[in-house]
Amino acid sequence: MTDRVTTGSDQDDGRRAAASAVVPEAGQQASGGDPEHTTAERVLGTIGTANRAAGSAESRSASKLWWDADADDYQAEHGPFLGDEEFLWCPERLRERQAKLLGEVEGKHVLEVGCGAAACSRWLASRGAHPVGLDISEGMLRHAAAGNERSGRSVPLVQGSADMLPFAAESFDTVCSAFGGVPFVADSGQVMREVSRVLRPGGLWVFAVTHPIRWAFPDDPGPDGLTAVQSYFDRSPYVEINATGRATYVEHHRTLGDYVSQITSAGFRLLDLIEPEWPEDHTEVWGQWSPLRGRTLPGTVIFRCLLPE
């Protein structure tokens, strides 16, 4: 799971200021810095945000830049929560061994999109599956390789983007993604089409993303994160830039309806839409996710899709 949105993953942890973003004047510091990501911001020279579009190539470039720079800090912060060999769908602590959203995986060829350190893939391997972990970031794949060595599980790792999957048609029985890839590409409909291409008929595509309703709220785990400050229907991307205007982090927003339309247009049948509730005994804060917000707002949505035979 590599999502930073206000969490420590992709989310934005307060990184995605929910109001109009402004680029600071030259020589000024960007406001609202996120201590969790200061190393990446320093390395990349991030100065603030910009109200502008970001296309496919720029979004891919920014994702690679960001996750390469943030990989060590991200893993240091969240590695203990994610584990070396565990399949966590979301900060709400929903585990695949309980949810069984992928069904029986023994003997199946499974692609994990946006695998990060590949803990999910190694869990799948422990259940008899033949997983492949894909991530755009060399830094994240370095941690995935280290996890392979620690666990003794040699999960194949491939560098690539979710909207340009480097695999032949009908290569996999199942494709999954736990907060990886989908929010960071400019055209998530292309991700759905690519997954449909590499999936065998009758296969499952299951992916988790930040619940779209969170886009309207500040990425704040406290009381301020309970008041909507922008439109849920505003699909403008969140773009961070350096002094030259180059994007150093990009995240895209889609509504629930957008996702459903993209899923069905790619030939899938939507089997289920899951909104995990915050467990009563879960007291940890993960970026924007917290017990306070979790009791009031959904933080994650999981789509379970079937490619008909």
Automatic annotation (TrEMBL):
Keywords: Methyltransferase, Transferase. It comes from the Bacteria. Pfam families: Methyltransf_25. GO terms for molecular function: methyltransferase activity. Residues 110-203 form the Methyltransferase domain. Residues 1-39 are annotated as: Disordered. The keyword Methyltransferase applies. One of its GO terms (biological process) is methylation. CDD domains: AdoMet_MTases (cd02440). SUPFAM superfamilies: S-adenosyl-L-methionine-dependent methyltransferases (SSF53335). InterPro entries: Methyltransf_25 (IPR041698), Methyltransf_Superfamily (IPR050508), SAM-dependent_MTases_sf (IPR029063). Gene3D superfamilies: Vaccinia Virus protein VP39. Coiled coil: none annotated. This is Methyltransferase domain-containing protein. It comes from Actinopolyspora saharensis.
